[in-house]
Amino acid sequence: MMRKSVASVLSFAMVLSACGGGGGGSGSVVTPPPTGATPTPTPTAVAGCSLRERQDWAAAQLNEWYLFPETLPASLSPAAYGNVDDYIDALTATARAQGRDRYFTYLTSIAEENAYYASGSSAGYGFRLAYDSAGGRIFVAEAFEGAPALNAGIDRGAQIVAIGTSTATLRTVSSILASQGTAGVTEALGPSAVGTTRVLRISDAAGTRDLTVAMADYALTPVSSRYGAKVLDDGGRKVGYVNLRTFISTADPALRAAFAQFKAAGITQVIVDLRYNGGGLVSIAQLMGDLMGANRAATDVFDYMVFRPEKSAENETRFFQPKTESIAPTRIAFIGTGGTASASELVVNAFIPYLHANAALIGTNTYGKPVGQIALDRAQCDDRLRVIAFATQNAAHQGNYFNGLASTVEASCRAGDDISYPLGDPREASTKAALDFLAGRSCTSIASSGQTTLALRTSANELLTPERPTTVQREVPGAF
């Protein structure tokens, strides 16, 4: 969950201080050659970007901004850590053990992140993978428009049977899982880089076949052009359905168009499908709330953002701001899973004080991330430190859902993720359960079984996520 306004200001401030009055460089210095000699660039270390300097900088930012300063060690030498990531993990280990910072604080690339949040740009095959732990299988949960996988005919429901760099080197997924686990599948798919090519043996309704697919740069469409927004007919009752993949800037016009369609159709009941949405920009989460807040007053709180006491000047109260396209839903069914996190949970939580049991969580429990990051930049190193710096609360000051929203929402319906049907298909298990809730038909609540919270986050298929995800994999769980 990225706080766009504060992040932008802080990023700019950190760029200025990191440059030291112009000390930043391009990353290399060219030594002038002797007359007549062939020029040979001689790269040198960028000033301020040694491992120790980067580690010290990260520690200083945490000491200033971290939401849980009492959990930081009084002193921890970085000497024992071979990279910045491991040092950050060690500094935040206590909060992580408490379940309050489950790798939410991390170092990433400024360039990579800016490209993603501006347009969803990333390199990959353009599909989202799910792992069937019981059957030892890997399935495609979703394929993105304009990306290599869908262009090759790979879509939701397809099973990846084998992976190789050529047909001669194909290894079955079952053997990879047996010997290396899910990390082996991630490794077999190759690095996230343009041109990475693999042969995939695919099994789907069309049969089994070998396809060669190469990673390419593509811009993720946040609201699918195929099923992202539509009006469903449930026995003559019109229901709006919107599926948001991720909270990025380009979701703004797509969401406005979706709700304009619902408004024109007189929609008052909505399914908001966030089952795979790992979060993103708070500004887009607030827009989504506004688009369902036509009947909210200017004094109605959407959310509170609360920083640590020393940073209380940064606290913010955001009120609903209805838009021209806004509707006034009487009932909302939010579809969620363990892959639903951060900004997605913020939207669900915001409606509880207003709709109470008329806003339900459908599917399984959510991830549990009621906190957000700010961006702190060290520009000459292309380092962006995402620091958990603020907590979010709804109008009733509910915000302590680190174990997911299942125990916070006032209504829920347990359902699976049936990848044999397209997303938004009324026959698909979670969509069907959402329609049942909206119609007042009975369902089984998510928490009624008495299982542990962790178990409630799981379903038959879990999204495949590498140990060190890229920006797109953090916000679009399961993406490759």
Search tags:
480 residues, seven-stranded antiparallel beta sheet, six-stranded mixed beta sheet, 14 helices
Report on the architecture of this protein.
With 480 residues, this protein is an alpha+beta fold. It contains 14 helices and 20 strands. The protein has helices at 4-19, 51-65, 84-91, 93-97, 110-119, 148-151, 173-180, 182-189, 251-264, 282-291, 343-355, 429-439, 453-457, 471-475; strands at 106-109, 121-124, 127-132, 137-143, 159-164, 171-172, 197-204, 207-214, 216-219, 229-234, 237-243, 269-273, 301-307, 316-319, 331-336, 359-363, 371-378, 383-393, 412-414, 461-463. The strands form four sheets. Strands 3, 4, 5, 6, 7, 8 and 20 form a seven-stranded antiparallel β-sheet that branches. The chain has a six-stranded mixed β-sheet with strand order 10-11-12-15-16-19, sandwiched between helices. Helix 9 runs parallel beside helix 10 (282-291). The model is unreliable at 4-43 and 451-455 (pLDDT under 50).
How are the SSEs ordered, and which strands pair?
Elements: H1 4-19, H2 51-65, H3 84-91, H4 93-97, E1 106-109, H5 110-119, E2 121-124, E3 127-132, E4 137-143, H6 148-151, E5 159-164, E6 171-172, H7 173-180, H8 182-189, E7 197-204, E8 207-214, E9 216-219, E10 229-234, E11 237-243, H9 251-264, E12 269-273, H10 282-291, E13 301-307, E14 316-319, E15 331-336, H11 343-355, E16 359-363, E17 371-378, E18 383-393, E19 412-414, H12 429-439, H13 453-457, E20 461-463, H14 471-475
Parallel strand pairs: 11-12, 12-15, 15-16, 16-19
Antiparallel strand pairs: 1-18, 2-9, 3-4, 3-20, 4-5, 5-6, 5-7, 7-8, 10-11, 13-14, 13-18, 17-18
